[in-house]
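Work Package 4 report. The design task specified in the project plan requires that, given a folded chain encoded as structure tokens, an amino acid be chosen for each position. We show below one input record used in the internal validation round.
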């Protein structure tokens, strides 16, 4: 059955299995990315959260850990977007993932360099636009997914997109095992992408105290969508930090965000003029606006507090609802092997079910 699980995605990305590790900010580091690739999946390095001047070293770190192809994500609103683009092309990185920031010219520049362009979208119209701009693959994240997310569940959004575009589609949002992979392939997807499931592995850089909070979350309803952080819907595990933001008035949230923005600007090497230019770009983006722009700094500061510093009470916990199904950590190698083994068993069971009526027709009554 293994041959049936080799899809066009495997050929495009150069991986053995149609399983993608998403580029979670401050989580998808060189170690996790390489571990995914070495296990036969395809890993994306979180280039969008690498500080200016650090992209080259991060890519070299991945290459030192694996000989397999890998990807890098970015968005056009980060101050070192050009640094990421140049490094991706120079190192012949296999693929990039992104949101809706790059224009057709930037996408064409990547494609001309042989880079597979693989945006993540959460709505049908965004998938159609991404393909029109030149995307080679589209990752479709349903509302079950973590971080910024839409309202449409994967089971509705995925077939909509599959019917509307002509490029391979990767399913994301709610996937964690071989059952999910087979279900996605049955819909017509070329593979699955997982974020939360890879966050909860022994190869993840997330501190143990924070991982334990994820593992203790057993109620999918406690992994909820909120607009309190930056004005856009995002899914987090409910905790004191999120509740505090939801209780705060808008002026109070803007004041907190301004403080975080000044700290982030200093770390990124941006002066007042650079911060103003970045704010203008955010405000004129696809989902721009004063409120979203002014509150944008809340997210990285509070996510890093839990994901990097290991303080799950005072930081935010981005998560897909699938976290409620995960109760133990395992390596990327063990995880992907289990996914493929489970998927093959599911396919065998379906084949046996299909053969059963034919066998029963030959029996005497």
């Amino acid at each position: 059955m293994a041959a049936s699980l080799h899809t066009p995605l495997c050929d495009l990305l150069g991986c053995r299995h149609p399983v993608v590790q998403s580029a979670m900010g401050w989580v998808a580091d060189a170690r996790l990315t390489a571990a995914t690739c070495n296990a036969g999946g395809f890993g994306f390095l979180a280039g969008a959260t690498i500080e200016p001047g650090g992209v080259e070293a991060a890519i070299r770190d991945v290459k030192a850990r694996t000989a397999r192809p890998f990807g890098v994500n970015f968005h056009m609103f980060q101050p070192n977007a050009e640094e990421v683009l140049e490094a991706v092309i120079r190192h012949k990185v296999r693929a990039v993932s992104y949101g809706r920031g790059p224009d057709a010219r930037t996408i064409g520049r990547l494609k001309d360099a042989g880079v597979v362009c693989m945006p993540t979208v959460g709505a049908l119209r965004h998938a159609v636009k991404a393909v029109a701009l030149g995307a080679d693959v589209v990752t479709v994240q349903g509302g079950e997914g973590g971080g910024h997310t839409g309202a449409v569940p994967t089971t509705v959004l995925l077939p909509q997109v599959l019917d509307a575009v002509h490029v391979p589609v990767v399913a994301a949002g709610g996937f964690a095992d071989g059952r999910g992979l087979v279900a996605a392939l049955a819909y017509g997807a070329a593979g699955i992408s997982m974020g939360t499931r890879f966050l909860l592995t022994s190869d993840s850089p997330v501190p143990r105290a924070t991982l334990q909070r994820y593992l203790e979350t057993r109620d999918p309803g406690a992994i909820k969508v909120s607009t309190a952080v930056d004005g856009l819907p995002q899914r987090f595990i409910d905790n004191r930090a999120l509740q505090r933001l939801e209780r705060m008035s808008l002026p109070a949230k803007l004041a907190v965000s301004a403080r975080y923005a000044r700290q982030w600007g200093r770390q990124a090497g941006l002066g007042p003029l650079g911060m103003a230019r970045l704010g203008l770009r955010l405000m004129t983006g696809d989902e721009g606006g004063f409120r979203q722009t002014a509150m944008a700094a809340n997210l990285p500061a509070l996510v890093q507090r839990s994901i990097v510093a290991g303080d799950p009470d005072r930081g935010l916990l981005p998560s897909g609802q699938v976290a409620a199904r995960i109760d133990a950590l395992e390596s990327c190698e063990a995880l992907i092997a289990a996914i493929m083994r489970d998927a093959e068993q599911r396919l065998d069971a379906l084949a046996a079910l299909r053969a059963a009526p034919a066998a029963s027709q030959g029996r005497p009554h």
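The chain has two domains: 2-205+330-350, 217-321. Validation will be extended to a larger panel in the next phase.
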